[in-house]
Design brief:
This protein is mainly alpha-helical and 171 residues long. The protein has one domain. It has seven helices and two strands. It has a two-stranded antiparallel ribbon. The protein is elongated, with a radius of gyration of 20 Å. The chain starts with 10 loop residues before the first helix and ends with a helix.
Length: 171
C-alpha cells in the first residue's frame, strides 16, 4: 500500500494522486543521502576484500560514514507536510536507523572482522554517532545494539588476546 484515503475518490482524483508517486525498483534512486551512505559502505567492503586488502581506504570510508550517520540519526522516521492549496498531508517515511545499520555497517563488520585497525575505527565512529544530542531513544538503542554485535564479532574473530583486549577496552 502506498497511500490511504479516508473518502471515496473519483477516477480523476485517483489519476491526480497517482501522478504524485514515483516508484522505482532501483534502491539508489531518488534518495541521494541513503545511496551515498550505501556507496561509502560498498567502498569500505571492497577495500577489505582479499584481492584489494586496503584498510586505509576502508578506514577513510568509515570516518565519512560516521559523520553522515551522525546527521542521519537526528532525522525523524517519518515527516509530514501539509500542502497549503489542497487539503492534503504528505507523509514521508525515512529508512529506519536499524535497517540502515543493517545495510551499511553489517557488511563492513563481516569483511573487516579480523582487522583491528578497521574495527577500532568502526567502534569510534559508532560511538561518535551515539553522542548526537538529537538522537531519538529508538535510534540510540539501534546503535547500541550494533555496537554489541561488533563486540561479539571482536570476541569471536580476533585471535590475538592482546589485540582483542585492547579493542574491548574501547567499549
Amino acid at each position: 500500500m502506498i497511500a490511504k484515503v479516508s473518502e471515496h475518490l473519483t477516477d480523476e482524483e485517483v489519476k491526480e494522486l497517482l501522478f504524485c508517486f514515483t516508484i522505482s525498483t532501483n534502491r539508489h534512486d531518488g534518495d541521494e543521502g541513503i545511496s551515498g551512505l550505501i556507496k561509502l559502505s560498498e567502498i569500505a567492503v571492497k577495500a577489505m576484500s582479499p584481492g584489494i586488502n586496503d584498510p586505509g581506504t576502508a578506514i577513510e570510508a568509515i570516518v565519512k560514514l560516521g559523520k553522515l550517520l551522525y546527521k542521519t540519526v537526528a532525522f525523524a522516521n517519518a515527516t509530514s507536510h501539509k500542502m497549503e492549496q489542497k487539503n492534503v498531508i504528505i507523509v514521508t517515511h525515512n529508512i529506519s536507523v536499524d535497517e540502515l545499520l543493517r545495510i551499511i555497517i553489517q557488511p563492513i563488520r563481516f569483511y573487516a572482522k579480523e582487522d583491528t585497525l578497521v574495527l577500532f575505527q568502526l567502534i569510534k565512529s559508532l560511538q561518535y554517532v551515539l553522542r548526537n544530542p538529537k538522537i531519538s531513544i529508538d535510534n540510540k538503542h539501534s546503535l547500541e545494539s550494533e555496537l554489541a554485535n561488533l563486540k561479539i564479532d571482536i570476541q569471536d574473530n580476533i585471535k590475538n588476546e592482546a589485540d582483542k583486549k585492547n579493542l574491548l577496552k574501547v567499549f
